[in-house]
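Chapter review: from sequence to fold.
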Amino acid sequence: MVTKMKNEVIQRYIQGDTLVIVSSVRDVCEEMAEKQNLTLNGDYIALGSAAAFTAALAAEQKEDETYITACFKWVGTKKLIAVTAFGDGRMCAYSDKFEPPKDVEGVILEVTRHSDVGGEYHSVVIGRNVQGAVNAYISESMQRNAKWKVVRDGRMTVGIFAEELPGSSDLRKVWDSVKPFFRLLDEKEFEKAGCEKLGESELTFGCHCSKRSAQRIIETLPKEERESLGPTAEVVCKFCGRKYEVENG
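The token string follows.
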């Protein structure tokens, strides 16, 4: 595959009344993988898919102060990868182990929408795999007529999210028209398909942690646990590894 797609970008297109969002990640995933000690194996591939999806969701939000966290949990391996994406293009992630609930198989997807205006909205769906979990989220939580696909080219992951706007019925037609892009990853294919480019923005690694947020973590701990820490405590951000010394008064 000869890629003619930019890295680390979110691109927005419109065809008729259908919105198409394309997210392309590579270097930002490598930085997140380095922070989380993920090697270039299955975990890295999973990170790319999670990052492309979360970036597209964040780009779809209309409030600047809103950011999205999408946590994918693989029941079979008991591993999770959570990616947070902000409207300004910053992204960060963390990986961990978890204990899955009984009688659940496949992939659990937990999406949290953080907003200073409307608070937090949390949604949980289950699918047979990543694609199935994303489709379940689109139909059950978003309740929209939309399609999602991930294409990989080496270390680059490209996500394509297409959504019908209110009153539209063109999704199938638009999706079929942009299918050559899935194979070529050439931006010109959108122009050939009749899509109008609305704009693009960069994606970068960036965390949302702060000393204030670290202080809040300490303040929410149970009394017994706080007393065991002493007058000051060290909080390590699970996303970027930054350390904060905070008061434990």
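Two observations follow directly from the output. The radius of gyration is 19 Å. The first helix runs from residue 27 to 35.
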